[in-house]
């Protein structure tokens, strides 16, 4: 299991892995940005930050490897294995942090969502209000536990029209105004549970990505160690590799 000196495939693979990791990290950032008003702990994004950093590191290693391919030497293999070990440990940290912050998502949302709904001031008026309308349309939900929660909000009491935001209206209902006199027109499920579910799903993407690439890098380290052992204990293998290098 060895690559020729002129073959940049291992480093191209690193670049591919780097691209996938950075894409996943960016996806988490973009998606969390839509829900950032529902949690206050910015440290929840640490796993995404780390996974982007790992992806950037792998990309740099891949570029360097493609430009100046590591020769078939014990030093090169040892360096390659050490880098993979560093990345492997980092990805294990990402998995642990992912599970920790995934467990905290529900408490964060429960703590923040009531405050966000109380700050609602109407469609397209400010960021929290737009966030609520976006979530209700995207997740097909209304209110915290159900549409009746809107009765307790400041916006509902001040508007005095016995209506909820039109973002609560089901898309297949024509001329829906959000009035509570026609509750069948509204989404029946509350947003709190769906927001928690969505954020946990996003965190699981990070966890599974880190686990997958950590497993692949473990195999890479094992292959490198096997070759190192064969080179150090088998003179014939050393001669064969040296001959192939000059061929």
Automatic annotation (TrEMBL):
Segments crossing the lipid bilayer: 12-30, 42-70, 77-101, 202-229
Keyword Metal-binding: no
Chief localisation class: membrane
Keyword Membrane appears in the UniProt entry: yes
A GO cellular-component term linked to this record: plasma membrane
Keywords for the protein's UniProt record, in alphabetical order: Glycoprotein, Membrane, Transmembrane, Transmembrane helix
Matches recorded under Pfam families: Tetraspanin (PF00335)
Subcellular localization(s) per the UniProt record: Membrane
InterPro entries: Tetraspanin/Peripherin, Tetraspanin_CS, Tetraspanin_EC2_sf
Assembly and oligomerization: Interacts with claudin-11/CLDN11 and integrins.
UniProt family annotation: Belongs to the tetraspanin (TM4SF) family.
Name used for this protein in its record: Tetraspanin-3
Record organism: Xiphophorus maculatus (Southern platyfish)
């Amino acid at each position: 299991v060895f690559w020729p000196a002129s073959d940049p495939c291992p480093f191209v693979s690193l670049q591919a892995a780097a691209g996938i990791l950075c894409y996943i990290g960016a996806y988490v950032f973009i998606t969390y940005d839509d829900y950032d008003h529902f949690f206050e702990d910015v440290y929840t994004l640490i796993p995404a930050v780390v996974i982007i950093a790992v992806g950037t590191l792998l990309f740099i290693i891949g570029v360097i490897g493609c430009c100046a391919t590591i020769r078939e030497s014990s030093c090169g293999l040892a360096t390659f294995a050490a880098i993979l070990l560093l990345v492997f440990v980092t990805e294990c940290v990402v998995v642990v942090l992912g599970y920790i912050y995934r467990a905290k998502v529900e408490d964060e949302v429960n703590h923040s969502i009531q405050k966000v709904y109380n700050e609602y001031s109407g469609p397209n008026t400010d960021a929290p209000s737009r966030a609520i309308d976006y979530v209700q349309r995207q997740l097909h939900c209304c209110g915290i536990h159900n549409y009746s929660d809107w009765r307790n909000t400041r916006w509902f009491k001040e508007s005095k029209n016995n209506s909820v935001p039109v973002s609560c209206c089901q898309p297949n209902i024509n001329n829906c105004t959000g009035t509570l006199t026609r509750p069948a027109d509204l989404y029946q499920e509350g947003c709190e549970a769906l927001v928690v579910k969505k954020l946990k799903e996003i965190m699981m993407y990070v966890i599974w990505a880190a686990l997958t690439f950590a497993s692949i890098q473990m195999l890479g380290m094992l292959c490198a160690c096997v070759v190192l052992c064969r080179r150090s204990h088998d003179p014939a293998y050393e001669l064969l590799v040296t001959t192939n290098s000059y061929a």
